[in-house]
Write a structure and sequence with these properties.
This is Prephenate dehydratase. Keywords: Amino-acid biosynthesis, Aromatic amino acid biosynthesis, Lyase, Phenylalanine biosynthesis. The protein is of the alpha/beta class. It contains 10 helices and 15 strands. Helix 9 runs antiparallel to helix 10. The structure holds prephenic acid.
């Protein structure tokens, strides 16, 4: 059975991997920190890593993108986007949750992942302005701490599955500031992913370095895609980390390297002196909202 490393247990990463890949078809290996997730696949302890790469409201997780670009040579093998619904969890003390305001008054401290705290800013300001906030390595770790510390005045912002895992009470759920809160995850690893789930699409991710002395190079890169009607779903510049003011362009393309058009576009881009690095050509999976 293939082994997949991820931040867990009790995280959104885990929820999303179970949703898209199933709980039984792979062996999931939990780590507390993202560098350890990456490392396990680099050293062969696991076959794949699942990494959160972008959030609707927080944007790209630059640290993870940069690790992918600068420190690893592992291609992207799949991508999915998963809704992030955040719950306020605390120790079950036998009383039923009495609703947001009353329960919130008792809370003195909240643990959560930094991204999750950022996604609940308005809620925290409105209902929990008096509370001390502490960022930890993952939301699952936040829920575990709440259980371990055993104090009903300490809470976590985490997925509902973390509450179920550690027997915590849900004070209130769906507290993210924006209801359309999604995170994009990528699966990286040396070999192709084999899964029963049919893909919903295909993407290719590349890194382009422009030649320094070629005015209008970015324009030409974009036009190589434009006239072939190849759709780009993301373009972002990231520092090369070699010289101040020099950048890579990280580009997501809604096309496969198996098509005729995309390899031709990349050849054209290389011909003007750009360096092109392929970060992966992979299936994408779409979340299907459950109808009530
Ligand atoms: O801590 C978790 O639950 C995670 O899966 C990590 C993570 C992230 O790093 O962005 C994943 C999705 C959410 O947007 C918040 C946190």
């Amino acid at each position: 059975m293939k082994r997949i490393s991820l931040l867990g247990p009790g995280t959104f990463t885990e929820e999303s991997a179970h949703y898209f890949l199933g709980e039984e078809s792979f062996e999931y290996v939990n780590y507390k920190l993202i560098p350890d997730v990456f490392q396990s696949t680099v050293d062969g302890t696991t076959d794949f890593s699942v990494i959160p790469i972008e959030n609707t409201f927080e944007g790209s997780v630059n640290l993870h993108v940069d690790t992918l670009v600068h420190e690893l040579d592992l291609p992207i093998q799949a991508e999915w986007v998963f809704p992030i619904s955040i719950s306020l969890l605390r120790l079950a003390d036998g009383t039923a949750s009495s609703g947001t305001s009353e329960d919130c008054k008792q809370i003195r401290k909240i643990y959560s992942h930094g991204v999750t705290l950022a996604q609940c800013q308005k809620f925290l300001r409105e209902y929990l302005p008096h509370v001390e906030l502490e960022a930890v390595g993952s939301n699952g770790e936040a829920a575990r701490l709440v259980k371990e510390l055993g104090d009903p005045a300490i809470a976590a912002l985490a997925p509902a599955t973390a509450g179920a895992l550690y027997g915590l009470m849900t004070v209130v759920s769906g507290i993210q500031d924006h209801q359309d809160n999604f995170t994009r995850f990528v699966l990286i690893g040396p070999e192709k992913l084999k899964t029963e789930r049919p893909a919903d699409g295909c993407k290719t991710t590349i890194l382009i370095t422009l030649p320094e002395d070629y005015p209008g190079a970015l324009h030409q890169v974009l036009s190589a895609f434009a006239w072939r009607r190849i759709n780009l779903s993301k373009i972002e510049s990231r520092p090369t980390k070699k010289k101040l003011g020099t950048y890579f362009f990280y580009i997501d393309i809604q096309a496969s390297m198996d098509s005729v058009l995309l390899p031709a576009a990349l050849q054209e881009i290389e011909a003007i002196g750009c360096q092109v690095r392929l970060l992966g050509c992979y299936p994408t999976y779409a979340y299907v909202p459950q109808t009530k």
